[in-house]
Amino acid sequence: MTGSADLPADGLPGERPGERPGERPGLAGRGLTGEAGQVSAGDSERVLARVVREHAGRLAASLISLLGDFSAAEDLVQDAVEAALRRWPAEGIPERPQAWLYTVARRRGLDVLRRESNYRAKLAQLRWPEPQAADDRLRLIFTCCHPALAPAARIALTLRVVCGLSTAQIAAAFVVPEATVAQRITRAKKKISQTGIPYRIPAAEELPQRLASVLAVIYLLFNEGYLSTTADRSQARDLVDDAEWLAALLAGLVPGEPEVAGLLALIRLHRARGAARFDERGRLVLLADQDRSLWDRQAIEQATTQLTRAAQTHRRPGPYQLQAAIAACHAEAPAFADTDWAQILVLYDMLLHLAPSPVTRLHRAIALRHVHGAAAALAEADALESDLTSYALWHATRAELLRELGRAVQARACDERALELTANPAQHALLTERLTWN
User: Fold this and answer.
1) Total count of domains within the chain
2) Alpha-carbon distance 317 to 354, whole Å?
3) Range of the domain at 73
4) Is the pTM of this model over 0.85?
5) Residue 74 falls within a domain, yes or no?
6) Which of 9, 69, 273, 321 has its CA 20 to 30 A from that of 426?
7) Distance, CA of 156 to CA of 216 (rounded, Å)
8) What is the distance between the alpha carbons of residues 329 and 323, in angstroms, rounded to a whole number?
């Protein structure tokens, strides 16, 4: 499981006024305005990336539902994307690019449908999916998270097919090479087709063995939206919207599952602080420097109440509940100096017992700094070198600790390495500013 943090601590994206829990603002009604005339290939690729990211899951889910063939549906989506890359630079970006992609996929689907006797009836059903058709996307997630697939492959496939993340973004989330992610996705798609894995939401007795992978997908989707791993944007509120909507949808499907409640509370606690995460110039504001009067106190109270209710009812804390509890410790502190770091350290110890990972150990080291000092924290961070040497936050955290210990030359070298590994523009700007301090 990958943790989420700014440099070096957390603070996550904010909820927009007027959104209600369980609604789908990130999926319904998001369109792109067309541009007449010729556009550059770069412009087309940027718009196409947005369309794929926002609508690939809906498009794939609808095609799979109709065709009953996972690989064929995925191929149709990819064919449509390739056609857009060829035609949009010359013809201009269409007014409704997502509908254009769907129309192309529909036409190319004729060859698939003609092999069936009832293809005309099926073709008549193939229309741009209505926003309220929520179950298609959830069915696709559960299909991708089938226990016949390897755990890492389930998550990678879902993030690619359902959520529209690129192979590079998924690789960054897993802290593994892109080639590894690509292999996982290819093998998983072949296995779904070869073994005939059903396209459906599993029966109640099957849910427990599928739930962990689904929660991991929503969590990683949220992380990518909260602090993007690409160079074109600092955060992606559309992905955060999608993650919250999917978590709320899942909570309705399994209302008694405390880890679903924990993930939903985690997302909402972070979103409640979003208005303070970036300044007016789009620069990242670290947790210690955020204006806490901008935090949504009502949302924080509601999320902590939800988390407390789940903990009291079930008394079996899981990783998402513990992460939500850590977020609650930050959100409930009136000022940064009032943060209960000792409690946060205990919660990280519990989290490491249940779900050990190098990134979680790094986050624990950050908490350890505020309890036992920078030297103790640096020793913990240094022990993670073999696991996190290509992880920007590890280098940035070491830079802060080294700077606090008076080792400025080494701190600068760590910041420089973190800058090399960082694509996110807000993180890049923060690290660049740090390098002007020495």
Assistant:
1) 1
2) 9
3) 30-130
4) no
5) yes
6) 321
7) 10
8) 10
